[in-house]
Predict the structure of HTH luxR-type domain-containing protein.
Amino acid sequence: MIIATKLHIPRSRSSLVVRSRLTRRLHEGLDRTLTLISAPAGYGKTTLLGEWVMTLENPVAWVSLDQGDNDRTRFWAHTIAALKQAYPSFDQQDVLRHAAEDPSGVSLIAALINGLHRISHTMVLVWDDFHHIEETSILQGVTYLLERLPLHVHLYLASRNSPALPLSRLRAENRLITLEASDLRFVPDETTEFFAMCGGIQLSNEDVATVQKKTEGWAVAMRLAVLSMHEHTDPVSLIRKMAGTERDISDYFFDEVLARQSATMQQFLLYTSILDRMKGELCQAVTGIAESHAYLQQLDKESLFLVALDEWREWYRYHHLFRQFLTAQLKMREPRQWQTLHMTAGKWLEENGYPHEAVDHYLAAADYEHALSLIEEMTPELMTNEWTTLCKWLNAIPDTLLFARPMMLLTKLASQYLSGHVEAATDGYWQAVRRLEEDTDPLPPEEAETLQAGLAFLAAFRTFLDCDFEYAVQFSHEYVEKHPEGDFFIEFGSDENGYHPVWDIYVSDDSLRLAEQVLTSLLSIWSETRNVYFVAHLYIDLGKMQYERNRLVEAEKLMRQAYDIGRLHDNRSLATIAALWLARIAAVQGDEATSKHILRELTQLTSKTANSRLSGKIASFRAMLGRMHREEKPVRQWLRKSRLRFRDEIPVSMIKEYDLLASILAEQGKMEEAAALTERLLQLSIEEGRQSDRIRLLVHKSMILSLQGKISDSMDVLEEALALARPEGYIRTFVDEGASLGQLMDQYIRLRQNQLRRPSHKVPLSYVKRLRRLIPLAEREAGTPHDRTLAALTAREQSVLRLMETGMSNKEIALKLNVSLATVKHILTISTANCNPKSLTSVGTCQNTTIVLTRSFYFVQIISTTLLNLFDLLCRAGLITMGLEEYTIDGVKLCRD
């Protein structure tokens, strides 16, 4: 939720002293990365910045921070909103799409940096009251931003202390300007002008020296002095009594400001001091004073330490130091009113649509029941992205209350973990386990069962998020055994389109072998539960594994199941992911009509919402498909709309998009850019432990090196990719690259066969040859005939032969093409009538059918599975060597390349 008043630049109603020496320093910040204004409260930091930005020709993005902004999502959401408000051309949605995709927040900041790069003119971003920010992850994000901030973007921070940022490094690199308390103190000339302008008081040089000595140039002290002098016939004697200590200044607030107000105004000031921000109606509810709006206007007119938070002067806040004084006075004078006032404020805010602020007031009043009830209502929304806020609130509520509401205790543990407080979540988990075991304060049986099941659920998903998949299976089994419905937190953390960070965790990305084992187990556990979204995700993950293993029929079935769940339950995220895979499978099978039909359906599905994440996935898929088919138009459109550049910061969630960019750059002849980008992507994939991305990027790096004429290096990198891929059984990562990689693999095979290359990795040549044999098929599937014979076949004949290569049986082919089984057999007979054994190059299997692939056509011979197994055994034993050889098994002549 964006609070508009936080983006307002505070402006003073009264005339202020022009402090030219300070504004010059601020202007110098337009040649630096960071300008830091660091001084205690009351030194005029906000006023100085607010007045300075009004002198600039360009707009400024401003965020006034508070304690609530220690939530990483909220902090960056307000920052991005401020940038969008100041600079309409800033692509806000393209940045925000990464907020959920990468829980670490690094992807969002990388996308933010890229978005700033795409605006060429000078940009200024102000974070006021930055001292409120203590969350480590936010400070790390700001550091990441500072290290990569574009030269035309300048950051200004106002803080009561020096933040935990790399200030020494910035100073050494001449990228930092600092203004401290000593700089902000009023000098004699400014003091003279201040008293004349703000108080109409002409001070002598001696008086000025006295003021300087007593106030030490502190802005708030001087302001108090001006306010007090109007009530004294001998202002000079008052000045001489002044002292600049904080306690004495507080006495001035009491004696010289508050005491001069009417009794009603004093009550108004004290009671409203509990409010972070206020408007007339809220003040009336809290104070019971009907003229509250008029009182606010009076304070504003008199510039009595009131700051307007919007252009219409509807919302206000007190100067921080003044509010501290007032709250201290309230607690001292009327301590019993503290709780009542907060409860009254909470009720008004809740009833008028400000639930976040209402919770803060209920907690301040220790009214935990009201707070917990409201938090419970807000939890689904907060679970989308405000885990830190949820964690902070639930941490403030005693565990005894949470224990009586098991789902809220579970929510607390989940919020602790997902907001980065892993140790606290772990401790809380074991405390709950021990309390259940000790049974000293037993819960009703139903609630105890809920808590036990919930703890197993949290353990299952924590281990899944941590990629500890074997334990995820164990705890999933325990959870479903205790709660067969499996409906806890079904949509927790999901956005409006059904996206959840879990959907970006694929076992198949880490290990195909582990995926085959783990995903089957997880599906058997979860498939009968109500958590259909997680089941759909498992289908997609298993489908990815089957696709990579070139089991296209199985992959299509799994993706179809995931797609059907997504459509049935209106989960656009899962439906989109599954549909894109279905389109890809159809495309590599040569069924372009089905692929295009799926994409049309997908466009209609996603047109209901303007979701940049989903539309970005569809656009990049179209570009990937266009590249496979050598179609320039979709590639050009994607390059133009995505605006990706090889120098961009790379969000982890966009590794595949930038890999596609690198491949396109290489094909455009921009080798240095392609190589540099690929190397950065490769290092990122290694750092993130993304095995599948690493293998694919090594393949692309090898191809780029080959295009650069660095054949030896190309072979080394290709061999590294093969060595990583072979134990896992990777196929499509290589096959989908088509003829270009095929030619490279030919070189590798020749070098190995002619003993011109000694492999540094153990890569069986049989695995390389198997991949090589499949690559020409990929070219044909992409719609590029290689010879007249295949081109001369009818479309129906080509469809049959392509589907056979994917592993489909004759019966499955007949069902898919809506023809009879006899028709399929007839097509196979016609297609293979003129077989020339000398053109045979490879053998593939399809259940009980051996397909002998030729350079011009297919030859089909039916033999038994036993004979096929024997043939494969001969291959693995190394009894078949490179070259065209014929074998006769049970009277059937076979050949192998």
In short: DSSP finds 47 helices and twelve strands in the chain. Residues 200 and 433 are 70 Å apart (CA to CA). The longest strand covers residues 153-159. Confidence is low (pLDDT under 50) at residues 778-793, 830-897.
